[in-house]
Amino acid sequence: MKAKHNRRVFIKNVFTGSFGLALGVVVGCSDNSAANISKDTKSNTQSPDSTIQPLQKTSQPTAVKPSQPTVVEPSQPTVVEPSQPINKAEAIKDEQFVSSTKMNREFKPKFNGPHYVGPLFDSHLHMPALVQDESIKNTSTLDIDVTAQEIINYLNKEKVDQAIAFSLPHPQKFQEYYTIANKFRDVDAIKLFVGYPGPYPQMLENILSMSNGLYKGLGELGFYTYPLKGIPPDAPQMSALYNVIGKNKMIVMLHPDNGQAENVRNMLRRHPDVKFLFHGNEICYDIDSIIGEFDNAYFSIDSAVLFTTVYNFPNRMPRIKPMFGLFVSGPVEKFVSTVESQFNNIVNDNIDFWQPKIIANPTKYLWGTDRFLPWHWTEEVSQLFEEFARAFTGALPKPVQEMYAHINGKNLLNS
User: Fold this and answer.
1) Which of 217, 288, 362, 392 would be a feasible disulfide site paired with 357, CB 3.0-4.6 Å?
2) Contacts of 319-327 spanning 24+ positions with Cβ under 8 A
3) Is 341 helix (H, G, I), strand (E, B) or coil?
4) Burial (Cβ within 10 Å: 0-12, 13-18, ≥19) of residue 154
5) How many whole angstroms separate alpha carbon 250 and alpha carbon 410?
């Protein structure tokens, strides 16, 4: 589809640049910070909406008591080390970057509940491109499609107190990119993951070292598309990157391709000390057994499986496919009208499929949006994202609602 194609073109254009040149720029970057926004996010109490009727759905399995989560090569290019150590500079306050004043929005559901009304944690958000590339269309760009302040405003209105946000560096304009990315250092709602740097572990090590805690993980690693299409997640060059992430006690977020379940198991087996967060249609039929087997495996149930076509493999449980990729292809009017016209069916289909998995491993599943397109940053889509999240969560057994919607993400990020 056009939007996804352009997103892949964007990634391809980025990786045809010279990362050697980029690193030379990286090591000259200073580490300046932005002004804090408030880190205090008001916590909503978790309670059902008593004024509305619950959805009609299949009987729910009995919730299990959550178990305690675990607290948890090809030849490489020569990388020139910086001639001088890079130290964290004194924070430079940028009062115009984001305001500490919170934008609130009362939750007014359009559809019958129950609805979860507590805080949310978005485990899958794509930051807009921080450096403009005029050759790329249908990919969000900061200050063109959405501003930093608008991002924070939408999160506040949806009562998302934190989000894992994937940010792909531009290798040919790394200093410009990093200067902007670094402004999010003290924005508590945004926790940046650095995008795929190529199969260069020393380069990744240098980026993490010079950024001094700006990034909390690596990802998204999309094995279904360029530049990782055809490379298995357990390939030696990928293991070298995971070793760097493990040494830094960070998280790897990845999107496996079809037929890679065994590669994923091998990867998890070889890197037991690295936490891996998965998402995507391609592995949704295998993820429950993978999560049950490996303590270091997690999965975000986000728009990639809530709103888009799910693969119907032979001998697997068929799924209703009401959206046919509209979350990616749009346009916004068609996406919103389709979701609203089939809202209960979409919620119930997802509950039937995901609820048993969540109950079986209640500490391992997380909510997310998978925002990345310009029209994903609009008021009507923001309201729809929030209501669907609260309706889906509210239809789960009460003991696991806040775990899925909020607690599991916080625990993973802070483990």
Assistant:
1) 288
2) 319/349, 319/353, 320/345, 320/346, 320/349, 322/346, 322/349, 325/1, 327/303, 327/370
3) helix
4) buried
5) 14
Contact between 192 and 183 (Cβ < 8 Å): no
**Residues, the chain, total?**
415
Which tokens is 197 given? 């740097």
Q: Which residue has the tokens 């010279």?
A: 18
**Two tokens, residue 237:** 């060059």
Q: How far apart are the first and last CA of the chain?
A: 37
Q: Is 24 exposed, middle or buried (0-12, 13-18, 19+ CB in 10 A)?
A: middle
Q: At which residue do the structure tokens 């200050």 appear?
A: 143
Interstrand relation of 120-126 and 297-301 (parallel, antiparallel or unpaired): unpaired
**Per-residue b or e along 74-109, where b marks 16 or more CB atoms closer than 10 Å to that residue's CB:** eeeeebeeeeeebeeeeeeeeeebbeeebeeeeeeb
Q: Edge to edge, what strands does the sheet with 120-126 contain?
A: 120-126, 160-167, 190-194, 215-222, 251-255, 275-278, 297-301, 365-367
Q: What is the DSSP string of 168-216?
A: ---GGGHHHHHHHHGGGTT-TTEEEEEPP--S-HHHHHHHHHHHTTSEE
Report pLDDT for 187: 95
> 210-242 b/e with 16+ CB inside 10 Å = b?
bbeebbbbbbbbbbbeebbeebbbbbeebbbbb
Report the alpha-carbon angle 152-365-11, nearest 5: 55
* Backbone conformation region of residue 230, classed left if phi is above 0, alpha if psi is from -120 to 50, else beta: left
This prediction has a pTM of 0.80
The residue among 51, 33, 70 whose CA lies nearest residue 274 is: 70
Q: Over the stretch 22-47, which tens digit does the pLDDT of each residue have?
A: 444 444 443 433 333 333 333 333 34
Residue keyed to tokens 């925002």? 371
pLDDT digits (tens, 9 = 90+) for 100-117: 888 999 999 999 989 999
